[in-house]
């Protein structure tokens, strides 16, 4: 299944009731990066992967600074 760049989305979902985030990605690049970091997909479908990762493992890089979420 071939997806356009626009369809190769990544969604990160978490709330404050748990320390795990669900990451859904349809991007080979993002899935490969998560696997390389040691995370294993908890679910796979045609064209998509779901990962459970610690919220502390998420950081956002801005123009001026990088911040950890958890």
Can you describe this structure?
With 70 residues, the chain is mainly beta. The protein has a domain at 5-48. 13% of the residues lie in helices and 37% in strands. A 4-stranded antiparallel β-sheet has the order 1-2-4-3, with helices on one face. Strands 5-6 form a two-stranded antiparallel ribbon. Strand 1 (10-13) and strand 2 form a beta hairpin.
Average of per-residue pLDDT values:
89
| Secondary-structure element string | EEHEEEE
Question: Could you name the ranges where pLDDT drops below 50 across 5 or more consecutive residues?
Answer: none
DSSP strand count: 6
- Characterize the largest beta sheet: strand count, sense, and whether it forms a barrel: 4 strands, antiparallel
Q: Which strands sit side by side, in order, in the main sheet? A: 1-2-4-3
Quote the beta fraction.
Answer: 35-45%
In DSSP terms (H or I, runs of 4 or more residues), the helix count works out at: 1
Derived structural class: mainly beta
Rg, please? 13 Å
Assign an overall shape.
Answer: globular
**Helix percentage:** 10-25%
Question: Cα distance, first to last residue?
Answer: 35 Å
């Amino acid at each position: 299944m071939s997806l356009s760049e626009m369809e190769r989305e990544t969604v990160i979902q978490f709330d404050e009731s748990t320390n795990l985030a669900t990451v859904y990605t349809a991007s080979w690049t993002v899935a490969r990066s998560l696997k390389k970091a040691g995370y294993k997909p908890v679910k796979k479908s045609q064209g998509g992967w779901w990962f459970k990762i610690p919220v502390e493992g998420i950081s956002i890089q801005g123009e001026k600074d990088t911040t950890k979420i958890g």
